[in-house]
């Protein structure tokens, strides 16, 4: 699997369930247990791989294809705070490692509770990175599953994971 936004083929799940989506998590688990095991994520792209890739750029490339700055779009940027969620894959992978280091979190995971600070950026928050594709759902799944197996022997991850 080189590119995906979901772990499982949703059409296959619906087909296995007689043309209807599963309505409970237990039914979903039953259906995916009948499917082929998930493929592991592909290796991370290295600088050696990227060195083999070349893209010819014309002198007017930035004018044609560049992303304009806020100033170029007419926005006043004086006094703007820095981004609440720093973007990118590197930040996502750093947060994933920080997240997985908290083995106690995995061992005692409960459903998240909303509180006044829930919407503020967390140093281990992963939602925007999963949402915008900076973090592979497949990589997250396999790393979390491996860690969970080490922490909770002979047990399935809880529903909330």
From TrEMBL:
Biological processes annotated in GO: circadian regulation of gene expression; entrainment of circadian clock by photoperiod; negative regulation of DNA-templated transcription
GO molecular function: DNA binding; FAD binding
SUPFAM superfamilies reported for this sequence: Cryptochrome/photolyase FAD-binding domain, Cryptochrome/photolyase, N-terminal domain
Gene Ontology CC terms: cytoplasm; nucleus
Cofactors demanded by this protein: (6R)-5,10-methylene-5,6,7,8-tetrahydrofolate
Family under the similarity heading: Belongs to the DNA photolyase class-1 family.
Protein name: Cryptochrome 1
Native source species: Ovis aries (Sheep)
